[in-house]
Amino acid sequence: MSNINLSNQEFDRQHIWHPYTSAVNPLPCYEVIGAQGVKLTLADHRQIVDGMSSWWAAIHGYNHPDLNAAAKTQIDAFSHVMFGGITHQPAVDLCRSLIEMTPEGLERVFLADSGSVSVEVAMKMALQYWACQGASEKHKFISPRNGYHGDTFAAMSVCDPVNGMHSLFKDVLANQIFAPAPQTRFDQVWNEDDILPLQELIETHHNEIAALILEPIVQGAGGMRIYHPEYLHRCRQLCDQHNILLICDEIATGFGRTGKLFACEHAQIGPDILCLGKALTGGYVTLAATLCTEDVALGVCAGEPGVFMHGPTYMGNPLACSIANASLKLIQQNHWQDQVAAIEIQLKQELTPLKDHHAVADVRVLGAIGVVECKKTVDVAKIQRHFVDQGVWIRPFGKLIYIMPPYIIGSEDLTKLTQAIATGLSV
Ligand SMILES: *Cc1c(COP(=O)(O)O)cnc(C)c1O
């Protein structure tokens, strides 16, 4: 039973789990009482500039009138209705837009309730695709190291085996094949050797591989690494040559974050299966999507049982779809390309000089993503206090201090973020 006299902070500390946080010895938690534009308001009424977009999601900023209006209109019509045997305008509009805006060839949309679930769906599609063609020996996945694809069990099995959770769950996680992470950086001259380890693994194991799964161009939570488009281009070729499906996880990179609408476009390729999430609803509610080609859809449904065996209760939630539709409309209206390009230029100007700082190992920028990799693991509690005192919200992990602000951020607020990082290196 809980004690009603506890403050919010204290109740939270004693009773509520937070992401990747100890329940016994938790890091401090900040209470937010409001959010508007690029700013969060804390319980003590301080306003801080958000550098995280609530983990890649709030690309248009908080409390946006268009997204609010879409939510309110849909609530007054109907919030939810089951998707089994029923369809509705918000889902039809959303899937139409997604098919139109994503790379050529993706024709079928599965609406999922979170990024991890969309990855589960993608992996299950790939397995069922091969099983239905009598090739059930193709049941493994190959993935570059340093990947991150979510926290559910199939997704975990393709996360980086070292910084993921493999050691803890090794007896229950499916045994997948890992290639070295791509080494050639986005703006370096392509090094042909970079593809060889993956190529050799595929040549050896293609008979047992259902799909190659990766995050195009930017590896997110597995290390914030930014790699050369030619690597992705070669992955597409290897998949074609060896009868392997390509799953692109654009849950973090999708909807403009890297300077292209989808990071696949840097290599001018399209996947067989695409996962989207995070920014899909502009950071309002959870929603994700798995898109696939007509070939994959037909293959999945060709053999017994003839249907795809997945159906979340809240699949195609109309409220989430309506907000997503409003968010996609804003992406078009807001000139995201100009916004992201301006953020990229400023991040390069203001973060690149930090390369010379004695505590810094590397600085990387692409689109509206800025990464400062430190030489040592960052003391999160300490640096977070510094950031809040400087009027910004940045949440580092491991050695990485990184920002991916809302696209609408102005240059003064962006400077606040980069300056807080610069001064934070010395706290
Ligand atoms: C966040 C993320 C996921 C998981 O999405 P959730 O909505 O947190 O389940 C999967 N893949 C990538 C690349 C992500 O960044």
Radius of gyration: 22 Å
Strand order of the largest sheet: 4-12-11-10-7-5-6
**Number of beta strands:** 16
Percent range for β-strand residues: 15-25%
Distinct helical segment count: 14
- Estimated structural class: alpha/beta
Inertia-based shape: globular
What share of the residues lie within helices? 25-40%
N/C terminus separation: 40 Å
Mean pLDDT: 96
Q: SSE string, helix = H, strand = E?
A: HEEEHHHEHEHHEHEEEHEEEHHHEEHEEH
The major β-sheet equals: 7 strands, mixed
| Low-confidence residue ranges | none
Bound molecules: pyridoxal-5'-phosphate
Structure description:
With 427 residues, the chain is an alpha/beta fold. The chain has 14 helices and 16 strands. It has helices spanning 8-15, 53-56, 65-77, 89-101, 115-132, 153-157, 166-169, 196-205, 229-241, 294-300, 318-333, 336-351, 380-389, 411-424; strands at residues 32-36, 39-42, 47-50, 106-112, 140-144, 177-179, 209-214, 218-219, 225-226, 245-249, 273-276, 288-293, 360-366, 369-374, 392-393, 400-403. The strands form 4 sheets. It has a 7-stranded mixed sheet with strand order 4-12-11-10-7-5-6, sandwiched between helices. Helix 4 crosses helix 11. The longest helix has 18 residues, at 115-132. The chain is globular, with a radius of gyration of 22 Å. The model has no long low-confidence stretch (mean pLDDT 96). It binds pyridoxal-5'-phosphate. The site of pyridoxal-5'-phosphate has 15 residues, from helix 5.
